[in-house]
Request: fold
Amino acid sequence: MISRVTPAVFRLIISIVTICILQLSFPYITRGSYEMRYPHQTQHAGNAGNGADFEAALPKIERMLSQQNTESPSITLDATDPSIDITPSSNKIRVEPAVINPFHIATLGSEVGGIIEKICCEPGDNVQSGQVVAEISKRRYDLNARKAKEKIDYFTIALHRADQDKAIKSKLVNMDAASLMDLSRAEAEAEIVEHRVAEAKFEYEQALHDLESAKVKAPFSGVVVARLKEPFEVAPPLEKLIVIADVSKVYAVANIPATMSPHFEKGAAAVFKTASGASYSGTVDRIEPSIDPKTETRKLYVLIDNPDGKLQIGMVGALVAE
Reply:
């Protein structure tokens, strides 16, 4: 019976056995969001519909079998999101993209409105905390302050005279030369003037505050990111004029699957790697507690010291959990 088997049929049997061995040797397993595959499984021998097809596919199968001992499997976490990888050799998690954000950023404006008198800096300039970066025309506020000061002086003099009148009325009452009604009027007048002095001082303080607010100062040291207005333009109160950012420290921000949060606990070490291969060490500052329902991810913030300013706002790289 065996002698009747033709060479073509014999090769067909060998091919079928080889295909079965190949399927057992190269599993394709999907569990939840974790997917493990061998790179060479993307190549298939085709549909063996007849002996000729198997004969054509046999050399490919032999090459794939020879590669089994030479190729190392790669493990990809969540094939639908290629931004998360686990390297089997080091067991480190790599997240990308991660984008550099400033430690602090502020849009500055003036509490008072008016004509912009000057803009003192350009985008890219470094500024120090308390430095004047813009000025609103202050002549009107200077006049208001002077007017409030004169009002204080006027009511101070009036208060002095009211006190004198009250003292005189008190002596006259003791001498039975004036009535208690006259003394009460003098005391009431003195109290009224005293309240007007306090009100004038408040107005003067407010005028000085407005005068000082005409100078826009940097709340912290940093770099000018944008200039939103030009000199001689009209600026209403709290109009946006300048944007500054503190880049002495920066955040590397990335979205990570909620299931990977335990690998990035607060205080854990992480490394930001740029496209050029440079590495910058940092620590996990926080992970937002809310989960994006569309992507099922959380926002991760890794704080990195940046004293030399090499990490710039908007740089893109990857985060690696240490």
